[in-house]
Amino acid sequence: MRYERLGDSSLNVPALILGCGNFGGIGSSPELFGHGDDKNTAFALLDHALTLGITMFDTANSYGGGRSEEWLGQWAADRGVRDNTILTTKVRNPVGPQPQDSGLSRRHIHEQIDTSLRRLRTDRIDLYLAHAPDPSTPIEETISAFDELIQAGKILHYGLSNFTGDTIEQTATTADRLGAAGPANLQCGYNLLDRAAATDAFDACSRHTIGLTPYSPLAGGWLTGKYRADQPFPEGSRMTLRPDWYGHLSNDATFTILKNLENAAAERDLSLPTMALAWALTDPAVTALVIGARSPQQLTGMCAALDVPLTPPERATITRIADGQPG
Question: What pLDDT sits at residue 230?
Answer without folding.
Answer: 76
